[in-house]
Amino acid sequence: MCLTIVSVAIIVLCLHLVVLPTCDSKLDGIFILPHGGIAIDPFGFKTLNATSKTEAILIHSACLSLASHIRSLQSDLLFLVTPHGIADRKNFLLYLNPNASGVANTDNCACPPCCYEFRAKISVDIAEDLVEQLSVKFNVSGLAAFGPPGEADDPMPLRWGEVIPLYFINSSTPVAILSEPYRRYGNILAMIPEMLSLGSFLGQYLEKMGPRVSVVISADLAHTHSADGPYGYSPAAEPFDMTVAAWVKTQNADLLLNDAAQLVTDAKSCGFPGFVMAQGMMDATRLTWDSSVLVNYHPSYFGMMVARFVRT
After folding, report:
1. Which of 67, 74, 188, 241 is most buried (CB neighbours < 10 A)?
2. What are phi and psi of 291, to 5 degrees?
3. pLDDT-based confidence at 138, cuts 50/70/90?
């Protein structure tokens, strides 16, 4: 498909046609946002490939439009799942500082001078309650930095996996942040049942709690699209990205849990654990969802998708 800058304007206009939740919603939606620096500053993306540059701009525009949609829902809580937070070997971690802050840079300009900063208020009460309930059955614990939970003066440090999605959303809404363990790097397939079960519990919890919630999955796709990239090239990259997009569009869990799972080890996608948890959330709540992929491109060595599941 030939991509032009005109396409950007058309897509942006279309993306503002959103589906609003019903008045009794608790879990308003599940949203997938990338955390690659190209997404946040496509105009500084140093490439001579015109198609790649246009794809980067399309990703950026889609992130802005999806972020606008999330803000329009006026959820009471943002529940963010990140693969690049402070990580324990075994446990998923919920941050317990009352405040969090950090910076992200673009893929072509370090910080400083290219610093994108975000400061967040953490809903410590909800995070602590989740730790209390989840730790009975799952490998989940709380993390407090520089002081007791809910009392530390210093903020919990954030980096690109949290900052870039939250920077796009640009909301003062309190957040709860779940960081994935680093055992995912070598044991991702064995974790699928655990992540499905954890997602199921989270979906039920978030749907039953009083505040309305938007779930944000911080995720990139395959990191093996280019031989020049840090992870080399794999023929699994393109089919993995296409399969994940098909999962979103069709809501066919087998596409994610079987087809994409067979490719993920070679594709090297940091977003896969979050996708599996999202599937668990949808399975548990048994709601009807309107799902769509806004964009799915790989302007660089890694793929980025902007997508949403909104309850109908």
Report:
1. 241
2. -120, 150
3. very high
Per residue in 202-212, pLDDT (tens digit) is 999 999 988 99
SS3 10: helix
| Closest-CA residue to 105 (of 168, 33, 46, 37) | 37
The 8 Å CB, 24+ separation contacts for 258-265 are: 261/189, 261/192, 263/222, 263/236, 263/239, 264/188, 264/189, 264/236, 264/240, 265/188, 265/189, 265/236
> Whole-angstrom Cα distance, residue 169 to residue 36?
15
Task: Determine what percent of the chain falls in helix, strand and coil, rounding each to the nearest 5.
Answer: 40, 20, 35
Q: DSSP letters of 201-251?
A: HHHHHHHHSSS-EEEEEE---BS-B-TTSTT-B-TTHHHHHHHHHHHHHH-
**3-state SS assignment for residue 141:** strand
> Buried b / exposed e across 46-80, counting CB within 10 Å, b at 16+?
eeeeeebbbbbbbbbbbbbbbbbbbeebebbbbbb
